[in-house]
TrEMBL record:
Similarity annotation: Belongs to the SWP1 family.
Subcellular location: Endoplasmic reticulum membrane
Any single GO CC term annotated in Swiss-Prot or TrEMBL for this entry: oligosaccharyltransferase complex
Pathway terms, separated by semicolons: Protein modification; protein glycosylation
GO biological process entries: protein N-linked glycosylation
Protein name: Ribophorin II
Entry annotated with the keyword Signal: yes
Main localization (coarse): endoplasmic reticulum
Residue ranges of domain Ribophorin II third in the record: 28-155
Transmembrane segments: 191-216, 228-246, 258-276
């Protein structure tokens, strides 16, 4: 009885080892290049282990598209291995790129390699090479289930140009800065400015002359205390307007002037009304 059990266990492990060690292969492998609109520019069917004969020439908007099946060597049944990775190698360095995703069916895989993403990934890993080989790495449970398949060679001339430009701009001298100044404003003649200043001040001069020649007549100023307050208040607001006008040109801005003008007006209107109402 023990011998039968041992025989059953031995036969089970033998079948497992044979099934896992039977090997895998790639089937129905397609490589295509599409532009930004999705239109196909190149479509090739690859047969492992043969790589694409001519190097891939990409533009910045192109996308490399891969699709393939993994099957067992013996019975051609699909195999679902999770480790399917694109590896990019140059003469000096190896760059891991992206794990291949399943297409929803067992043993079927697909991957899109946009040019911009590919170039950015190489740069992020410190790469400055221009010539590469693209490999598909499939890793199974043992050595027989491991495939490293060279798909094609790839040249990225623009990638090196951009990297060199960035290095120069980072460590090289900065370009000269040229300032453009506005031309000097034209000002009028000094004599003309003095003439207009005199015209502005002329009314004040005439007012002073009139006060001096005619003198100030206080005989009509009301003696009634209430009326005197009304008249004095109204005259005071007129003086305040004059002072505010002077301060506007020397110190205050327009908003401050409007604020003080409103306050003076609150007193000027009632005092003016009462002064005229009680005027004899």
């Amino acid at each position: 009885m023990k011998i039968n059990k041992l025989a059953i266990i031995a036969s089970y492990f033998t079948s497992v080892i044979c099934s896992t060690g039977s090997g895998i292969e790639l089937d129905n492998f397609k490589l295509s290049i599409t532009d930004s609109t999705g239109e196909s520019k190149l479509t090739e069917k690859l047969t492992y282990p043969k790589a694409l004969s001519s190097p891939l020439q990409l533009e910045t908007s192109d996308v490399i598209r891969l699709s393939y099946k993994l099957v067992k060597t013996e019975d051609k049944l699909p195999v679902d291995l999770s480790y399917n990775t694109i590896v990019i190698e140059s003469e000096t360095k190896e760059y891991s790129y992206h794990q291949v995703q399943t297409s929803g069916k067992v043993g079927q895989f697909k991957l899109n390699l946009p040019y911009k993403s590919l170039s950015k990934n190489i740069k992020a890993q410190g790469g400055s090479d221009t010539n590469f080989n693209i490999y598909l790495l499939v890793r199974g449970n043992n050595q027989k289930d491991t495939i490293k398949y060279k798909l094609a060679s790839l040249s990225l001339p623009e990638s090196k140009k951009k990297l060199d430009t960035e290095k120069k701009s980072e460590f090289g001298p900065l370009p000269l800065i040229h300032h453009t100044f506005r031309p000097d404003e034209k000002v009028p003649l000094k004599a003309l400015s003095l003439v207009f200043s005199g015209l502005v001040l002329a009314p004040w001069a005439l007012l002073l002359v009139g006060w001096t020649s005619n003198s100030v007549n206080f005989s009509k100023f009301p003696t009634n205390p209430t009326k005197a307050v009304y008249n004095a208040g109204f005259i005071g607001t007129l003086v305040a307007y004059t002072v505010l006008n002077y301060l506007y040109w020397t110190k205050l801005n327009v908003f401050e002037t409007i604020y003080y003008f409103t306050i003076i007006t609150l007193f000027s209107v009632p005092f003016g009304y009462l002064t005229l109402k009680n005027h004899n």
